[in-house]
Design goal:
Length: 98
């Protein structure tokens, strides 16, 4: 459940400033809203993806805080990391002849 909610936030299905649909998530996963809040939201709050706001724009609830690009560190696979062998032959970076 946590991974699914995280993925939805990172894929911008749940947008920054938007209330997390805790009731819908509870029905989807067969849980109570309290269980969703305690099980998933505490992890997502710790990650900085959501925050609890008692005076939010749509009332008390859990709100998405960060755009996906600012919350996940960019990972470059080792095969694509720049290195001396890549810098010596700029054609390789552009997919040119080797």
């Amino acid at each position: 459940m946590i991974a699914i909610i995280r993925e939805r936030i990172l894929n911008m299905i749940y947008l920054p400033g938007e209330a997390l649909p805790v009731g819908i998530l509870a029905r989807q996963f067969g849980l109570t809203t309290r269980q969703v809040t305690h099980r998933a939201c505490r992890h997502l709050i710790a990650e900085g993806l959501v925050h609890h706001d008692n005076k939010g724009p749509h009332g008390p609830g859990v709100y998405v805080t960060q755009p996906a690009l600012q919350t996940v560190p960019h990972h470059v696979p080792p095969s694509q990391e720049p290195g001396p062998h890549r810098a010596q032959n700029p054609n390789r970076l552009a997919g040119g002849p080797r």
